[in-house]
Amino acid sequence: MRTKWTMIVFTLIVVFTSELYIPQFGGHVDGLASAQETEKTENEFYNSYPVKVTVILERKYLDGEISEEKVNETIWSMQDFLAKYNQWHLLDMSENKVVFRQQIDDISPLLKSNGYFGITDDGILTIYNGKPGHSKIIQSFFQIDLGKLESTKWEQLKQGIPIKTKDRYEEVLESFKNYSKEGNQS
Fold first, then answer.
1. Band of the pLDDT at 147, cuts 50, 70, 90?
2. pTM higher than 0.85, yes or no?
3. 51-103: which CATH topology?
4. Residue in 117, 128, 132, 134 with CA at minimum distance from that of residue 174
5. Residues near 81 by Cβ (< 8 Å), separated by ≥ 6?
6. Element housing 177 (H / E)
């Protein structure tokens, strides 16, 4: 009986330590090598590291603008990779591309540098890329009741109200909500 237990322990030691020593010598130990090769093939199929991917980092700002940054990464461990981007929300993952998004509690760099509140000919509060008139519309908000709008505020919107900070963005939106046709109907 003791010999039987000695053989079982010896076999277990050989099985557990063979993974450490077989690759060093490149040899095969009876049926163990083919089992290890099968396990290695399966692991490569499911966890073939390192993996090279393109990481797309999307930053979504309060004004709806989304900026995109592309980074090439080599993934050595999925756990380490995901930990690196733990402040980001995973949107999509494929064989060679990973997309993350992060909500930014600020206005976009575009608005800070060249954004202006204005009003369209139809009376819609709008943000322009540049002064209102011939500039591209970035975002539209709501219809303003022009009958209630003070002439000074009308003139400010026609000239363009620069947006340099998040506070200014929120302040202007809040002040013009009082003139919203939608707000007046409720």
1. confident
2. no
3. Ubiquitin-like (UB roll) (3.10.20)
4. 117
5. 73, 75
6. helix 166-177
